[in-house]
């Protein structure tokens, strides 16, 4: 079964708006687990704009599924990861001025630096995932770097303007997943996924887990977190079912259709 790792950074963003104590991303993480999430992701950024060190410390003690620490490959973050020992660390590029993580990590262009970070984290007993664009040279560089997982960046798929562009992006994701698996990597995916576009990505057989934040927390503000997580799990299961009954590949999603998930077959 495909897993859902929920990013609770946005809960911390609301808390930091008042520099107070509520809402607590630790409470959110526990509700995600009760609703069936397979893991919790937090991004401890250099500028500490949302998640704080205290959150990572508490989550490390309380999360029962899996804690995935998203982080830049800097010495400071590597030391923190080695101290807290999350089950997984996902290396991402980080720029201060960005609103969220933008492109994937350029593993190909920074092979030595990334390889060193991967080694240190793995020696500390932490599984390492590299967040990369779905490009052949990045996938093979990730395998050379010794990563356990790649997380395929689904941002271009999510932002595609029409069905044709979305189909082309989906094909890139499928090709990257197949290539990665062939090179011995395990495959995750995420960024920009929502209730309407998640199905075809969830249907990629090589993908073990999706990492989703914004759409779930945005819905949770209105309907509650447990319901928001359960509805995402249902949308993912619906996407997987397409794959399992062998319906021809990659049903394109119809953008803008209200209610439920619709495919153009
Ligand atoms: N994966 C990575 C590596 C990310 O940086 C993010 C955003 O923090 C996500 C997944 C989740 O993206 P979104 O919030 O758009 O669902």
Q: Can you put this structure into words, describing what you see?
A:
It is an enzyme of class 2 (transferase). 1-deoxy-D-xylulose 5-phosphate binds at residues 9-10, 45, 50, 100. This protein is an alpha/beta fold. It has a single domain (3-241), classed as Alpha-Beta Barrel (TIM Barrel). 46% of the residues lie in helices and 15% in strands. The chain has an 8-stranded parallel β-barrel, surrounded by 8 helices. Residues 250-265 have low confidence and may be disordered. Pyridoxine-5'-phosphate binds next to strand 8 and helix 10.
Q: Which class best fits the helix and strand makeup? A: alpha/beta
Number of helices: 11
Shape: globular
Strand order of the largest sheet: 1-2-3-4-5-6-7-8
Subunit structure: Homooctamer; tetramer of dimers.
Pathway: Cofactor biosynthesis; pyridoxine 5'-phosphate biosynthesis; pyridoxine 5'-phosphate from D-erythrose 4-phosphate: step 5/5
EC number: 2.6.99.2
Active site: 43, 70, 191
């Amino acid at each position: 079964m495909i897993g859902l790792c929920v990013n609770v950074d946005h809960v911390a963003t609301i808390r930091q708006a008042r520099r107070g104590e509520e809402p607590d991303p630790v409470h959110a993480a526990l509700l995600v687990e009760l609703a069936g999430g397979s893991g919790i992701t937090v991004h401890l950024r250099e500028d500490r704009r949302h998640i704080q060190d205290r959150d990572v410390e508490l989550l490390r003690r309380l999360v029962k599924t899996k804690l995935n620490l998203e982080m830049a490959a800097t010495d400071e973050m590597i030391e923190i990861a080695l101290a807290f020992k999350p089950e997984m660390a996902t290396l991402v590029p980080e720029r201060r001025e960005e609103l969220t993580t933008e492109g994937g990590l350029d593993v190909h262009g920074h092979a030595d630096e990334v390889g060193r970070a991967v080694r240190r984290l793995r020696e500390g007993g932490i599984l390492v995932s590299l967040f990369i664009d779905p490009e052949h040279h990045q996938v093979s560089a990730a395998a050379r770097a010794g990563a356990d997982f790649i997380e395929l960046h689904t941002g271009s798929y999510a932002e595609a303007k029409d069905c044709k562009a979305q189909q082309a992006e989906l094909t890139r994701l499928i090709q990257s997943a197949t290539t990665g698996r062939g090179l011995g990597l395990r495959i995750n995916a995420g960024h920009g996924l929502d209730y309407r576009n998640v199905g075809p990505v969830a249907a990629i057989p090589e993908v073990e887990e999706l990492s989703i934040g914004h759409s779930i927390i945005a819905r949770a503000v209105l309907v509650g977190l447990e319901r928001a997580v359960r509805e995402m799990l249902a949308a993912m299961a619906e996407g997987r079912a397409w794959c399992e009954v062998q319906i021809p590949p990659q049903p394109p999603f119809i953008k803008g259709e209200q209610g439920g998930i619709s495919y153009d077959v």
